Amino acid sequence: AVVCVHLFPALMLTFIQRQQPLPVRTMFIATDYTASPSCDRMQLDTCVIPDASLRAEFEKNGVRPETILPCGIPVREELYTCLPNREAKLAVGLEPSHRHLVMMTGSMGCGPMERITELLANSLPPEYDVTVACSSNRQLLRRMERRFADKPNIHIRGFISNVSVLMDSADLFLTKPGGISTTEAMVKGLPMVLVNVVGGCETPNLNFFVSHGGAATAGTPEDIAALCKELLENDEERLIMRQSLLAMKQIPAAQAICDRLEG
Protein backbone atom coordinates (compact mmCIF):
# COMPACT_ATOMS: atom_id res chain seq x y z
CA ALA A 1 0.00 0.00 0.00
CA VAL A 2 1.02 3.61 -0.57
CA VAL A 3 -0.49 6.20 1.77
CA CYS A 4 -0.23 9.93 1.07
CA VAL A 5 -0.84 12.59 3.72
CA HIS A 6 -0.38 15.56 1.38
CA LEU A 7 -2.14 16.35 -1.86
CA PHE A 8 1.05 16.74 -3.95
CA PRO A 9 2.25 13.11 -3.57
CA ALA A 10 -1.37 11.98 -4.02
CA LEU A 11 -1.44 13.74 -7.40
CA MET A 12 1.93 12.23 -8.31
CA LEU A 13 0.69 8.77 -7.35
CA THR A 14 -2.44 9.29 -9.45
CA PHE A 15 -0.21 10.05 -12.46
CA ILE A 16 1.93 6.95 -11.80
CA GLN A 17 -1.12 4.70 -11.57
CA ARG A 18 -2.39 6.00 -14.90
CA GLN A 19 0.93 5.67 -16.72
CA GLN A 20 2.49 2.57 -15.16
CA PRO A 21 0.10 1.02 -12.60
CA LEU A 22 1.65 -0.46 -9.48
CA PRO A 23 0.07 -3.53 -7.80
CA VAL A 24 -0.66 -1.62 -4.59
CA ARG A 25 -3.58 -0.12 -2.71
CA THR A 26 -3.50 3.66 -2.70
CA MET A 27 -4.83 6.11 -0.13
CA PHE A 28 -4.97 9.83 0.56
CA ILE A 29 -5.48 11.11 4.12
CA ALA A 30 -6.84 14.65 4.38
CA THR A 31 -5.18 16.32 7.38
CA ASP A 32 -7.35 19.45 7.32
CA TYR A 33 -11.08 19.85 7.85
CA THR A 34 -11.70 20.89 4.26
CA ALA A 35 -11.25 19.63 0.70
CA SER A 36 -7.95 20.93 -0.65
CA PRO A 37 -7.81 22.60 -4.07
CA SER A 38 -7.17 20.12 -6.93
CA CYS A 39 -8.44 17.12 -4.97
CA ASP A 40 -10.72 16.49 -7.97
CA ARG A 41 -7.57 15.48 -9.90
CA MET A 42 -6.68 12.83 -7.34
CA GLN A 43 -7.90 9.34 -8.21
CA LEU A 44 -6.78 6.94 -5.47
CA ASP A 45 -8.51 3.91 -4.01
CA THR A 46 -9.44 5.57 -0.73
CA CYS A 47 -9.80 9.16 0.49
CA VAL A 48 -9.80 9.42 4.28
CA ILE A 49 -11.65 12.52 5.49
CA PRO A 50 -11.71 14.00 9.03
CA ASP A 51 -15.45 13.88 9.68
CA ALA A 52 -18.61 12.48 8.07
CA SER A 53 -20.14 15.96 8.01
CA LEU A 54 -17.54 16.93 5.38
CA ARG A 55 -18.52 14.19 2.93
CA ALA A 56 -20.66 16.49 0.76
CA GLU A 57 -17.84 19.04 0.50
CA PHE A 58 -15.36 16.42 -0.70
CA GLU A 59 -17.87 15.00 -3.17
CA LYS A 60 -18.62 18.50 -4.46
CA ASN A 61 -14.90 18.98 -5.02
CA GLY A 62 -14.62 15.90 -7.20
CA VAL A 63 -13.77 13.05 -4.82
CA ARG A 64 -15.62 9.89 -5.83
CA PRO A 65 -18.21 8.98 -3.15
CA GLU A 66 -17.29 5.29 -3.11
CA THR A 67 -13.68 6.12 -2.14
CA ILE A 68 -14.51 8.24 0.91
CA LEU A 69 -13.71 6.86 4.38
CA PRO A 70 -14.82 9.33 7.11
CA CYS A 71 -12.74 7.97 9.98
CA GLY A 72 -10.85 11.07 11.15
CA ILE A 73 -7.24 12.26 11.21
CA PRO A 74 -4.75 9.82 12.76
CA VAL A 75 -2.82 10.96 15.84
CA ARG A 76 -0.41 9.12 18.13
CA GLU A 77 -1.87 6.26 20.12
CA GLU A 78 -0.67 7.69 23.44
CA LEU A 79 -3.09 10.60 23.06
CA TYR A 80 -6.04 8.24 23.53
CA THR A 81 -4.83 7.54 27.09
CA CYS A 82 -5.63 10.36 29.50
CA LEU A 83 -4.31 11.08 32.97
CA PRO A 84 -6.71 12.76 35.42
CA ASN A 85 -6.22 16.52 35.27
CA ARG A 86 -4.89 16.92 38.81
CA GLU A 87 -2.52 13.96 38.43
CA ALA A 88 -1.21 15.37 35.14
CA LYS A 89 -0.60 18.76 36.75
CA LEU A 90 1.54 17.12 39.41
CA ALA A 91 3.42 15.22 36.68
CA VAL A 92 4.41 18.48 34.94
CA GLY A 93 5.31 20.23 38.19
CA LEU A 94 2.20 22.35 38.76
CA GLU A 95 -0.03 22.86 41.77
CA PRO A 96 -3.12 20.65 41.14
CA SER A 97 -5.56 23.33 42.27
CA HIS A 98 -4.26 25.88 39.73
CA ARG A 99 -5.94 26.61 36.39
CA HIS A 100 -3.58 25.86 33.49
CA LEU A 101 -3.40 27.33 30.01
CA VAL A 102 -1.12 25.66 27.46
CA MET A 103 -0.02 27.77 24.48
CA MET A 104 1.43 25.91 21.51
CA THR A 105 1.40 27.39 18.01
CA GLY A 106 3.26 25.04 15.71
CA SER A 107 6.84 23.85 15.37
CA MET A 108 8.14 27.40 14.82
CA GLY A 109 6.13 29.14 17.51
CA CYS A 110 4.37 31.40 15.04
CA GLY A 111 1.93 34.19 15.73
CA PRO A 112 1.85 36.90 18.44
CA MET A 113 2.91 34.54 21.24
CA GLU A 114 4.99 37.12 23.10
CA ARG A 115 2.27 39.76 23.08
CA ILE A 116 -0.42 37.31 24.18
CA THR A 117 1.85 35.94 26.93
CA GLU A 118 2.57 39.48 28.14
CA LEU A 119 -1.13 40.28 28.28
CA LEU A 120 -1.87 37.07 30.18
CA ALA A 121 1.03 37.61 32.57
CA ASN A 122 -0.36 41.03 33.46
CA SER A 123 -3.98 39.95 33.82
CA LEU A 124 -4.05 36.45 35.32
CA PRO A 125 -3.84 35.85 39.08
CA PRO A 126 -0.85 33.87 40.47
CA GLU A 127 -2.92 30.69 40.78
CA TYR A 128 -3.39 30.58 37.00
CA ASP A 129 -0.42 28.94 35.27
CA VAL A 130 0.55 29.45 31.62
CA THR A 131 2.89 27.07 29.80
CA VAL A 132 4.25 28.39 26.49
CA ALA A 133 5.86 25.90 24.09
CA CYS A 134 8.31 27.69 21.78
CA SER A 135 9.09 24.33 20.10
CA SER A 136 12.04 24.60 17.69
CA ASN A 137 12.20 28.42 17.76
CA ARG A 138 15.30 28.86 19.94
CA GLN A 139 15.48 32.63 19.49
CA LEU A 140 11.90 32.96 20.71
CA LEU A 141 12.66 30.62 23.61
CA ARG A 142 15.68 32.66 24.80
CA ARG A 143 13.86 35.96 24.37
CA MET A 144 10.78 34.84 26.27
CA GLU A 145 12.82 33.19 29.03
CA ARG A 146 14.49 36.55 29.69
CA ARG A 147 11.29 38.53 29.37
CA PHE A 148 9.21 36.45 31.78
CA ALA A 149 11.91 35.35 34.23
CA ASP A 150 10.22 37.31 37.04
CA LYS A 151 6.79 35.73 36.45
CA PRO A 152 6.66 32.44 38.42
CA ASN A 153 3.32 31.40 36.88
CA ILE A 154 4.58 31.80 33.29
CA HIS A 155 6.49 28.69 32.21
CA ILE A 156 8.50 29.04 29.00
CA ARG A 157 9.45 25.76 27.36
CA GLY A 158 11.20 24.68 24.18
CA PHE A 159 10.43 21.39 22.48
CA ILE A 160 7.86 19.37 24.46
CA SER A 161 8.34 15.60 24.45
CA ASN A 162 5.44 14.74 26.80
CA VAL A 163 2.69 16.51 24.85
CA SER A 164 0.04 14.00 25.93
CA VAL A 165 0.62 14.59 29.64
CA LEU A 166 0.93 18.35 29.14
CA MET A 167 -2.43 18.43 27.38
CA ASP A 168 -3.98 16.35 30.16
CA SER A 169 -2.74 18.94 32.65
CA ALA A 170 -4.33 21.81 30.70
CA ASP A 171 -7.72 23.37 31.32
CA LEU A 172 -7.51 25.36 28.09
CA PHE A 173 -5.41 25.06 24.92
CA LEU A 174 -4.34 28.13 22.95
CA THR A 175 -3.14 27.09 19.50
CA LYS A 176 -3.26 27.82 15.82
CA PRO A 177 -5.87 25.70 14.01
CA GLY A 178 -3.61 23.14 12.38
CA GLY A 179 -5.38 19.93 11.46
CA ILE A 180 -3.20 17.72 13.67
CA SER A 181 -3.12 19.93 16.79
CA THR A 182 -6.88 20.50 16.74
CA THR A 183 -7.49 16.77 16.30
CA GLU A 184 -5.18 16.02 19.24
CA ALA A 185 -7.20 18.44 21.38
CA MET A 186 -10.44 16.86 20.18
CA VAL A 187 -9.22 13.39 21.19
CA LYS A 188 -8.33 14.78 24.62
CA GLY A 189 -11.60 16.71 24.98
CA LEU A 190 -9.48 19.83 25.60
CA PRO A 191 -11.27 23.16 24.98
CA MET A 192 -9.46 25.41 22.51
CA VAL A 193 -8.88 29.08 21.80
CA LEU A 194 -7.73 29.31 18.19
CA VAL A 195 -5.45 31.99 16.74
CA ASN A 196 -5.78 32.24 12.97
CA VAL A 197 -2.22 33.30 12.05
CA VAL A 198 -1.60 31.16 8.95
CA GLY A 199 -4.88 31.15 7.04
CA GLY A 200 -5.23 28.84 4.06
CA CYS A 201 -6.60 25.43 5.03
CA GLU A 202 -6.35 26.37 8.71
CA THR A 203 -9.25 28.82 8.41
CA PRO A 204 -11.76 26.02 7.65
CA ASN A 205 -10.25 24.08 10.56
CA LEU A 206 -11.01 27.02 12.84
CA ASN A 207 -14.53 27.36 11.48
CA PHE A 208 -15.17 23.63 11.91
CA PHE A 209 -14.30 23.50 15.59
CA VAL A 210 -15.90 26.83 16.46
CA SER A 211 -19.13 25.80 14.72
CA HIS A 212 -19.12 22.46 16.54
CA GLY A 213 -18.74 24.18 19.92
CA GLY A 214 -15.29 22.86 20.83
CA ALA A 215 -13.34 26.07 20.30
CA ALA A 216 -13.58 29.84 20.49
CA THR A 217 -11.63 32.56 18.72
CA ALA A 218 -11.06 36.30 18.62
CA GLY A 219 -9.17 38.77 16.43
CA THR A 220 -6.54 40.83 18.23
CA PRO A 221 -4.01 39.61 20.82
CA GLU A 222 -5.87 41.70 23.40
CA ASP A 223 -9.15 39.98 22.58
CA ILE A 224 -7.49 36.55 22.55
CA ALA A 225 -5.98 37.12 26.00
CA ALA A 226 -9.30 38.39 27.37
CA LEU A 227 -11.09 35.35 25.93
CA CYS A 228 -8.58 32.98 27.54
CA LYS A 229 -9.04 34.64 30.93
CA GLU A 230 -12.81 34.50 30.58
CA LEU A 231 -12.81 30.79 29.72
CA LEU A 232 -10.33 29.89 32.46
CA GLU A 233 -12.72 31.48 34.94
CA ASN A 234 -15.79 29.72 33.52
CA ASP A 235 -15.83 26.01 34.42
CA GLU A 236 -19.30 25.49 32.98
CA GLU A 237 -18.43 26.91 29.56
CA ARG A 238 -15.28 24.80 29.33
CA LEU A 239 -17.28 21.70 30.28
CA ILE A 240 -19.72 22.38 27.44
CA MET A 241 -16.79 22.74 25.02
CA ARG A 242 -15.22 19.53 26.32
CA GLN A 243 -18.46 17.60 25.85
CA SER A 244 -18.78 18.96 22.31
CA LEU A 245 -15.29 17.72 21.45
CA LEU A 246 -15.77 14.29 22.98
CA ALA A 247 -19.03 13.91 21.05
CA MET A 248 -16.98 14.15 17.83
CA LYS A 249 -14.38 11.61 19.00
CA GLN A 250 -14.24 8.43 16.94
CA ILE A 251 -12.34 5.16 17.16
CA PRO A 252 -8.59 5.74 16.55
CA ALA A 253 -8.31 6.72 12.90
CA ALA A 254 -5.02 4.84 12.46
CA GLN A 255 -6.79 1.58 13.32
CA ALA A 256 -9.62 2.26 10.87
CA ILE A 257 -7.09 3.12 8.16
CA CYS A 258 -5.16 -0.12 8.73
CA ASP A 259 -8.40 -2.10 8.68
CA ARG A 260 -9.25 -0.60 5.27
CA LEU A 261 -5.79 -1.32 3.85
CA GLU A 262 -5.80 -4.90 5.16
CA GLY A 263 -9.45 -5.64 4.30
Give a short account of the largest sheet.
6 strands, parallel
Helix content, binned percent: 40-55%
Tally the helices: what do you get?
11
Question: Rg from C-alpha positions?
Answer: 20 Å
Structural class: alpha/beta
Q: Separation of termini?
A: 12 Å
Apparent shape: elongated
Q: If strands are numbered along the chain, what order do they take across the biggest sheet?
A: 7-6-5-8-9-10
What topology does this entry show?
Blueprint: E1 2-4, H1 7-19, E2 26-29, E3 46-48, H2 55-60, E4 68-69, H3 85-91, E5 99-104, H4 113-123, E6 128-133, H5 138-147, E7 154-157, H6 163-169, E8 172-175, H7 179-188, E9 192-194, H8 202-211, E10 215-217, H9 221-233, H10 235-248, H11 253-262
Structural notes for this entry:
With 263 residues, the protein is of the alpha/beta class. It is built from 11 helices and 10 strands. It has helices at 7-19, 55-60, 85-91, 113-123, 138-147, 163-169, 179-188, 202-211, 221-233, 235-248, 253-262; strands spanning 2-4, 26-29, 46-48, 68-69, 99-104, 128-133, 154-157, 172-175, 192-194, 215-217. The strands form 2 sheets. It has a 6-stranded parallel beta sheet with strand order 7-6-5-8-9-10, with helices on both faces. The protein has a 4-stranded parallel beta sheet with strand order 1-2-3-4, covered by helices on one side. The relative contact order is 0.14. The model has no long low-confidence stretch (mean pLDDT 93).
